[in-house]
Amino acid sequence: MGLQKVAFNFIVERGGKLAKSILCTKPVLRPINIKGLKYCPKQNYHQFQSNISKSETYQKIRNGIISYAPKVKHEELIKVYDDFVKSNSDLKVVEQLFVAVENQFKGLPQKELIKRYNIIFKNINTLRLNNPEDYLYMVKGGFFDLIEQGKVPLENLRTNFKNARLSRSLLEDLKKVANKEEYIPNYSHMNTKEIAKIVRNSDVYIKNEKLYTRNNGIEIELKISKEKFEELFPPVLRHISQQGNIGNCWFVSRLNNLMSTESGRSGIYSLFRQSGDDIYIKFPKCDKEILFPNGHILTSTSGKQIKAVTGLSMVEQAYAVHRTGRYLNGNVTNIESFRNVDNLMSNLQADSYKAMIHDETKNKDVLDLISSEYTYNISSYGNILGGFRRFVNKYLLNKNLFDRYTSKINLEKIIDSQANSNSLKINIVFKKGESDLIDLYNIVPDHQLLLSAVENNRYWVTNPWFNWIEKGVDRSTFYRHLIEAQVPMQW
């Protein structure tokens, strides 16, 4: 294919087992087979280059780069594009990204469109080179189709993808789509024991015309239809969200925490009850419900709400109602009674959250109970202050825990083990004024993030501004800047 050196040969068109690394110094012009990998280009290199020249969108991009970039820059960019596009599927990705940019930034001059597109394309190319398997499943799992349809916010793609990978929960969904696995299978022909052997916790399935999920080995009936569940939590998109433009990173990060774990997902699904077209949400240990007539959420043009699937938007709005304590009609509150959604969202501002967390009379929050209700191994969250001591010890619920958590060694053991557990993950905050976090990892300090995994001395962190990307921070940087962590207080 004319590449000088390729770290990975994509098998988008031909399938076969994934090769982690294939190095080539010559064009691949005939079929090869390495350890079960089958790669057979549909056409030779020269035939494909002819197809590229016929792509109107691709030529538009190339011409735009030549017209608006300095000569040194445009030659470099053209080479990047030409090296990227080596198959029909790669050409389609280039075109889908450009269509998305054109649709979102309608009315901008062509020069600005090309400029914005180049940023997004280079980020995708970085991810492709560093994580070829992730890119493969983005293509096969329809991720770029969702981008083209405007269902993935383009601003998510403007972050630096260096030291980045897809979130593991998103990757899992993409693999299911790529492998054509049924999202909600029907197991009515099987008994409970047979189902238990093949269903994982938080998977959703049908049995005898009812919807179920499982958690900790326990079968839980969901009170919504299959069609409604697919509408509220569609595959892939259920793992993509973006914080609105208010200071509720603490809430969105904890929501991401729940959606990234099996117990959390099944706990969220269990909040919903359907009656006709109406949807009700009831939080654990709460007798009162929030009604969403006809399954509709409140809308606003201010951008203060989370950008997410309808199910997660409902949880955010219902939680904001719960925080107000205003259950207006006895045991049921109609969400439409809160006509000003912006005022409702203000209940999730960071200052309001801190006041709640540090009030010992309000030490248990329904967000804790969503998961602990079903796993029975997490009673509450608490601020783990460690040697960093952002707050004073009176804010801890149990003073005896203070010494245990203020040991740096103990804190690191707790964080390392909990990050890779199957229960809830850890929400963290880095201290202000740390330029290396921004320069090296594009991570914002003084902002609540999610620590989703620890692998090979890399601490994979998720930002609620673009939750489907994980950034890998090295161990020394992570602990040097950490000032706050939240872990289950079972420790």
Helical amount among residues, as a percent range?
Answer: 40-55%
Query: What is the global morphology?
Result: globular
β-strand amount: 15-25%
Number of helices: 20
Average pLDDT, rounded to a whole number, is 76
Q: Work out the count of structural domains.
A: 3
Major pleated sheet: 7 strands, antiparallel
Count of distinct strands: 16
Termini separation (Å)?
55 Å
Brief overview:
The chain has 491 residues and is an alpha+beta fold. It is 41% helix and 16% strand.
Q: Would you write up a description of this structure?
A:
The chain has 491 residues and is α+β, with helices and mostly antiparallel strands. Strand 1 and strand 2 (37-39) form a beta hairpin. The protein has helices at 45-53, 56-68, 71-84, 88-104, 110-130, 132-140, 143-148, 168-178, 192-198, 226-232, 249-259, 262-269, 310-324, 341-345, 350-357, 366-375, 400-405, 408-419, 435-441, 475-481; strands spanning 32-34, 37-39, 164-166, 204-207, 210-215, 218-222, 272-275, 278-281, 289-292, 332-334, 381-384, 426-430, 449-455, 458-463, 466-474, 482-488. Helix 2 packs antiparallel against helix 3. The chain folds into three domains: 32-177, no CATH class; 240-357, no CATH class; 380-488, Cathepsin B, Chain A (Alpha-Beta Complex). Helices cover 41% and strands 16% of the residues. The strands form four sheets. The chain has a seven-stranded antiparallel sheet. It has a four-stranded mixed sheet with strand order 7-8-9-10, with helices on one face. The chain has a three-stranded antiparallel sheet with strand order 4-5-6, with helices on one face.
